[in-house]
Fold NELFB factor.
Amino acid sequence: AGLGQAAMYAGLQELGVANGEDLKETLTNCTEPLKAIEQFQTENGVLLPSLQSALPFLDLHGTPRLEFHQSVFDELREKLLERVSAIALEGKVEERYKKLEDLLEKSFSLVKMPSIQPVVMCVMKHLPKVPEKKLKLVMADKDLYKACAVEVKRQIWQDNQALFGDEVSPLLKQYILEKENILFSNDISVLHNFFSPSPKTRRQGEVVQKLTQMIGKNVKLYDMVLQFLRTLFLRTRNVHYCTLRAELLMSLHDLEISEICTVDPCHKFTWCLDACIREKFVDNKRARELQGFLDGVKKGQEQVLGDLSMILCDPFAINTLALSTIRHLQDLVGQDTLPRESPDLLLLLRMLSLGQGAWDMIDSQVFKEPKMEAELITKFLPMLMSFVVDDHTFNVDQKLPSEEKGPIPYPSAIPEAFTKFLQENRIACEIGLYYILHITKQRNKNAFLRLLPALVETFSDLAFSDIFLHLLTGNLTLLGDEFALEEFCTSLFDGFFLTACSRKENVHRHVLRLLLHLHHKVAPAKLESLQKALEPTKQSGEAVKELYNQLTEKLELRKPSPAEVTETPSMELPLPAVPTPASR
């Protein structure tokens, strides 16, 4: 209690105002306590002559003096807070800040007094530059630091990167966790997936909003956050940091914070790309605009390519560029045009290549656009176009009246070069995977089964990355009825998923997610062998065990109960696994 009292009166003595300690001392050393109290009240009460006669009137009504003084105090504090906010807006800039600085000087010694603290904090909040000494005192005291406004904290942070890092770090962790939770969500749907929310909706997320608020208009803090994101991206290769880089800039853009937007050289490029991401397509007009930015990087300013590559490495950007590429390829088939003759397509590849090269560029600090391999354009993309043609030909053949030679089978062989490209060329692999997502979404089972074997070994295991598996599992729900067929399940599970389950925990999780969603469609014999194959090992993480238990529970519920099968009264004894008809 002594400590609490001390805090209540903290700093009054320095201002020559009597406090509880003084009253205690007076009473300890006096002969007539009542007189001493009266004198203390007169000296320290509200000094208004008209009040002296009114106080006894309150006494008659049984209103304690404390209650009266408290209400006067609260009223005065509100008035003072209003006045401080008003001073911060009136008169010449130098004068108003001079007034506030004087007020801070007078009141700062009371900053630990709970009843006065809001006033001191309010004065500091309105000062664009709080004196260094005061900032240091605030920083050194945990409670004061916690209590001060974000405007004051910004002034502390801009010269204390480590402290700012401590504040930002949990938010970045939370952000990555939120992204992973969406990718591993139990809701599997082709309509609502990782890429469904619009950029504007994503920027309303808690982390982006908090970071935007912490940065305010402070370029130095913005640069620090970007530095944190670059460092973490380098350390972890986690592409969600690239998303946050773009979202943060666009969140400041939404608030029209020109102090920051005008100094970020990526602003206009990101703004244009953001519009493409919103439409999930890069149209010709925007393509030319984006190309203008890339061609406009001047000599000596190549470092901006590092930032642009990070913006393009955002999965939402890659998704938009890859979807646009697939659409362009289909159009080219209809126009009888080769990929190398389409400038729009070449620009998409250039941007994909810049995005995919982000990590290497930032790591090596060599800022130049990656070289595009000619074979990607002259061999790989025409090969994808030939797959589109195969589908058209097959569909036409199916409709022709069949002659004696019987129906023409779907081409099952994959060109060796396709598999090789997926293994050795990152851009080819990315486009190849998006082509496979595209045919799955079209419910094209034949094309899917034909190309699936090429996914077992891909460039840096891209076919087993979370984003691809998240999208693939969603699209596979459209082929739900095929899961009843042994051949389809063997190709998909044994031929693809199970090849990586034991070495990649994330693949194990995605297969279990898929089965939780589609188990009722899978042939029973296949389901049983899958259940065995997917059983968690000692090394499996909690998430896998949890999903496996959910699946087991669902399958238990589906089994017909022994009582139904045998029609015998149920006994307490455990029944055999395969119920036998009871002999009567």
